[in-house]
Amino acid sequence: MKYLLIILTALTGIWGCATSVNTSMMGPSQRLDYAMKLYNDKDYEEAIKEFQAITLQYPGNLVVDSAQFYLGMCHFNRTEYILGAYEFSKLIKNMPSSKFVPQAQYMLADCYYELSPYYELDQKYTKKSIEEFQAFIDFFPTDSKVPEAEKKISEMNDKLAHKEYHTAYIYEKLGDYKAALMYYEFVLDTYHDTKYAPLALYGKINMLVLTKKDNDALSEIPKFIEKYPGDPNVKSLEKLKSTLEEKLSIAK
Known about the structure:
About 75% of the residues lie in helices and about 0% in strands. By secondary structure, it is mostly helical. It is rod-shaped, with a radius of gyration of 29 Å.
């Protein structure tokens, strides 16, 4: 019983401390300082309540854009990326002159980046991430985060290329060479600067051979060798080139 009373007394003290801050008596700046303290202490749940209260109670005040930005950051840090994207979008749309707009634009893109799934799944968030990172680069080309945005765009493009390349590969294994050829060509046309481009070109050459388009295959091989001289498939393509040339010369 004695120990129970000690525990209850301690808990009462903790609860008392937690509710001892009377924010209703604070001005906008004080309220923001308090909310930022909660944020820096990683008490995101309570910080969200405070930032929301500031945006509602002090519309037009200078502290509102700070509260709006960190409201988005709270959700981001809680891995609530849809909510984070919503709050960052709200700042960009409603407070276009805010100093937080560049950061909000980057974080909006980063929310979609975090939502981007495994390459075989639907890639709508991947595409949205690329779109928003590109908007960030276009509007704020001198920002220090531009290289990071470019890196993430490249990563997302690789993922999209992987999905299309994988589709081509599946069609190839199923024996649908025309469909496989179509997807390999799509990768080459759309994602020519990704790591899947040489794989797609190699796949395209093989599909041209399998669909009895030897002349077309023969014209693609030198392009591959010239563009990707260090690729491991170069030797096999050189052999294929010799085989096709011999075959076509005999046919004449």
